[in-house]
């Protein structure tokens, strides 16, 4: 009997002492940037440095929801392009990212929520992104077993349905991007922790790692929840705070939940995976921290929230729980900067709830920025100086309405 020999998706590479580009962070943002640098801009002398293993951070610790129903014009356009990239990447990478366009339904439980949904719906449709306002009965038709009676502490008053949204398999995205980047010559180094950043004459010259010094002309900090800590190696204090967000899955059930749904009032969102598990997450921990510890409080919270909204889930057991870091800015919008304090220093951080679904599109534009030294028009709204000029993004309201950790 013959057996097919399994091949690595990305090949091991020798660690060179100098690269044209070094990217700190082996998650979806770092890998996407490396992939687009090599594929679209011909810059293949790139090293991705990951202190643990690729996908260790937020890229592997989320509920894999993707959507474009944001609040601000800049974010809607960015995430809409990001949604379209999933199918493109599946073909380019020749790897099944398991994108499931199942639609996302947000539940509103107050007059204020319904008014906000009307505004969001009009914004989306004006920009060509499909969303529609549903009444409670229509919500119940989409989510079997949803209690729309007045017995709830917060009765369902409306829903905002976003058909283009859905879910993507998070580990498939990481592996697919690593495969594509490696095929174009990018070196991926796992277990390589950055301990310091070197500069000279106002520009970045390299990094100091547990595997020795590595020189570079351009450096990208794309370390998710650890981005602020990495920037602090240069004495930079960024308006980014890491907060833990927890998620969990139940034991497998027969397929019944065919859409993602969320509730800001109950701080819960959920979808059913291909294995039949109900994957669900909650709001972030309020304390700034770097822990991935899970707590009994959120097990209790999720059980109470899910069973109040869908009483038929009573008796279902949680099987696994995990936690990840969200790098939150004051306005819940990211910071994407180039030549930040030093020539050759680029930053992609502060994504908060939205880091997973933004990965490929952020990588596409950060690669363009790093390759050309010119800020793409798409990134103008995400400059660091907006905090100094009190021009905060209006995205916070949308995040509060949905309670999503994507």
Give an overview of the whole structure.
The chain is an alpha/beta fold and 406 residues long. The protein has helices at residues 28-41, 73-93, 111-126, 136-142, 170-183, 227-231, 296-309, 355-372, 385-388, 396-402; strands at residues 18-24, 46-50, 65-66, 104-108, 132-134, 158-162, 166-167, 187-190, 194-200, 203-209, 212-221, 241-250, 260-263, 268-272, 278-288, 318-328, 335-338, 345-349. It has 2 domains: 18-64 and 171-239 and 331-394, FAD/NAD(P)-binding domain, CATH 3.50.50.60; 101-165 and 242-330, D-Amino Acid Oxidase, subunit A, domain 2 (D-Amino Acid Oxidase, Chain A, domain 2, 2-Layer Sandwich), CATH 3.30.9.10. The strands form 3 sheets. Strands 1, 2, 8, 9, 10, 11, 17 and 18 form an 8-stranded mixed beta sheet that branches. It is globular, with a radius of gyration of 21 Å.
CATH topology call of the largest domain? FAD/NAD(P)-binding domain
Give a quick account of the main beta sheet: strands, pairing sense, barrel closure.
8 strands, mixed
**Integer-rounded radius of gyration:** 21 Å
Relative strand content = 25-35%
**What separation lies between the terminal Cα atoms?**
44 Å
Mean pLDDT across all amino acids:
94
The number of E-state strands comes to: 18
């Amino acid at each position: 009997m013959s057996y097919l020999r399994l091949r690595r998706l990305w090949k091991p590479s020798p660690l060179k002492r100098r690269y044209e580009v070094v990217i700190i962070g082996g998650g979806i943002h770092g890998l996407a940037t490396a992939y687009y640098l090599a594929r679209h801009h011909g810059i293949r002398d790139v090293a991705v440095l990951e202190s643990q293993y690729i996908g260790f951070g937020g890229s592997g610790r989320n509920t894999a929801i993707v959507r474009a129903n944001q609040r601000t014009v800049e974010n809607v356009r960015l995430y809409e392009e990001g949604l379209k990239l999933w199918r493109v990447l599946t073909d380019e990478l020749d790897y099944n990212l398991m994108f499931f366009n199942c639609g996302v339904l947000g539940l509103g439980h107050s007059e204020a929520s319904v008014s906000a949904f009307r505004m969001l719906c009009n914004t989306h449709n004006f920009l060509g992104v499909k969303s529609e306002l549903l009444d409670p009965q229509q919500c119940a038709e989409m989510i079997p077993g949803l209690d729309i009676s007045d017995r709830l502490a917060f009765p369902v008053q409306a829903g905002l349905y976003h058909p283009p949204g859905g879910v993507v398999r998070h580990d498939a995205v990481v592996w697919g991007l690593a495969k594509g980047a490696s095929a174009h010559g990018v070196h991926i180094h796992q277990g390589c922790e950055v301990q310091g950043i070197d500069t000279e004459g106002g520009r970045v010259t390299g990094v100091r790692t547990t595997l020795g010094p590595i020189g570079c002309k351009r450096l990208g900090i794309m370390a998710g929840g650890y981005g602020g800590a990495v920037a602090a190696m240069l004495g930079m204090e960024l308006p980014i705070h890491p907060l833990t967000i927890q998620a969990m899955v139940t034991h497998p059930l027969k397929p019944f939940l065919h859409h993602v749904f969320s509730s800001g009032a109950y701080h819960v969102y959920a979808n059913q995976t291909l294995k039949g598990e109900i994957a669900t997450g909650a709001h972030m921990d309020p304390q700034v921290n770097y822990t991935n510890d899970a707590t009994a409080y959120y097990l209790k919270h999720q059980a109470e929230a899910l069973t109040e909204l869908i009483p038929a889930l009573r008796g279902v057991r949680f099987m696994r729980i995990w936690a990840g870091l969200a790098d939150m800015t004051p306005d819940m919008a990211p910071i994407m900067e180039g030549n930040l304090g030093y020539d050759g220093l680029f930053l992609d951080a502060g994504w908060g709830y939205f880091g997973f679904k933004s990965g490929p599109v952020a990588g596409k534009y950060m690669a363009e920025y790093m390759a050309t030294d010119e800020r793409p028009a798409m990134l103008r709204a995400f400059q660091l100086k907006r905090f100094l000029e009190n021009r905060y993004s209006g995205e916070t309201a949308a995040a509060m309405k949905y309670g999503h950790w994507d």
